[in-house]
Design the sequence.
């Protein structure tokens, strides 16, 4: 709180930007759509103050243990931190807001966006998910009241913003019903971060690693292809590696669980031979940014993915990976990559070159900077 209060009092002659990230750096969405952009924005003459919901230590010590007493402390700290940021926002030239002012963990009516807008209407709003609804696979996903509140927060966040940035065309169509000033910026990747750490494919003598990385709330999607992977494991020496905050068991196949950390993320992804992204097709998943596919591709790894939302734009079938609509296509795509190491390497090189051309920060950071300047 002392650090945030210091920011709230700070004065600067530079073009000033106040940033409200969705969460701290440990959250992938916040890390890649906000924090990783900051060096590029500063380079263009902005002074930046970042107001996260809380510090990482507060999140880790009070929210993650999942105890009611700790959650009360966490919620109080979020309210105090965001209130201080909203109070300070009037001094800045532009506001960069990601996803939610408070958090999707709160079930609040859309009051805070009005307070922020009243203090500074020059809001750039960024989203990379179908935030107008709660995840249907979650415990709270079918709660009508909570979904109603989520839709109202989404509406007013979009309506009161000068510019809205979305990660794909599906989200853009939804935003255009409310606000005509919208631009697509996909979730970028720093391809150079993977340089020199990709392991070489070995022909024989080791298991083929089928890899998945993602948040603990989404790890259950792997159950969609449990039977496919089990059948493949009967024919080939394979194992599944899962990088996440939550482990999972898959019947009939060895699963190696790796606790996610920012320090080891790239290194662990580079141990994959094939990346996977199974998804059900629904209104929520169509809004996803397909970011794990970009991570695989940046590491030179071909992928097999469900053709849901932007996945169909990221994967070029037969060149950077395969799209699989059913168990038969999943098995065919995985077996093709397992049986042919040289083909796997070639496809991985193609995938890396493709993502470097279309999804690197060097391509998208100047566009974000221009948006902030114009607003």
Sequence:
């Amino acid at each position: 709180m002392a650090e945030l209060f210091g920011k709230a009092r700070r004065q600067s002659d530079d073009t000033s930007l106040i940033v409200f990230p969705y969460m701290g750096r440990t959250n992938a969405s916040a890390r890649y759509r906000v924090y990783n952009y900051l060096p590029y924005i500063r380079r263009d003459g902005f002074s930046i103050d970042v107001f996260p919901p809380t510090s990482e230590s507060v999140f880790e010590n009070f929210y993650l243990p999942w105890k009611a007493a700790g959650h009360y402390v966490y919620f109080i700290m979020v309210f105090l931190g965001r209130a201080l940021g909203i109070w300070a926002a009037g001094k800045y030239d532009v506001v960069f807001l990601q996803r939610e002012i408070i958090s999707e963990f709160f079930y609040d009516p859309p009051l805070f966006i009005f307070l922020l807008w009243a203090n500074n209407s020059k809001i750039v709003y960024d989203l990379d998910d179908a935030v107008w609804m709660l995840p249907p696979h979650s415990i709270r996903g079918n709660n009508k009241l909570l979904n109603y509140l989520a839709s109202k927060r989404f509406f007013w966040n979009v309506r009161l913003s000068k510019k809205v940035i979305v990660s794909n065309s599906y989200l853009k169509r939804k935003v255009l019903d409310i606000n005509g000033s919208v631009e697509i910026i996909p979730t970028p990747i720093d391809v150079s971060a993977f340089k020199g750490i990709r392991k070489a494919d070995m022909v024989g003598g080791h298991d083929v690693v089928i890899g998945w990385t993602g948040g603990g709330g989404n790890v259950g999607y792997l159950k969609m292809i449990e039977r496919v992977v089990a059948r493949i494991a009967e024919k080939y020496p394979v194992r599944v590696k899962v990088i996440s905050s939550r482990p999972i068991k898959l019947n009939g196949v060895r699963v190696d669980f790796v606790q996610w950390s920012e320090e080891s993320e790239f290194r662990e992804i580079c141990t994959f031979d094939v990346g996977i992204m199974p998804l059900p097709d629904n209104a929520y998943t169509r809004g996803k940014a397909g970011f794990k596919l970009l991570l695989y591709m940046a590491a030179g790894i071909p992928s097999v993915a469900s053709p849901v939302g932007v996945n169909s734009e990221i994967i070029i079938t037969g060149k950077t990976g395969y799209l699989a609509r059913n168990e038969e296509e999943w098995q065919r795509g995985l077996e093709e990559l397992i049986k042919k190491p040289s083909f796997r390497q070639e496809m991985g090189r193609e995938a890396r070159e493709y993502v470097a051309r279309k999804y690197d920060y060097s391509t998208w950071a100047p566009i974000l900077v221009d948006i902030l300047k114009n607003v």
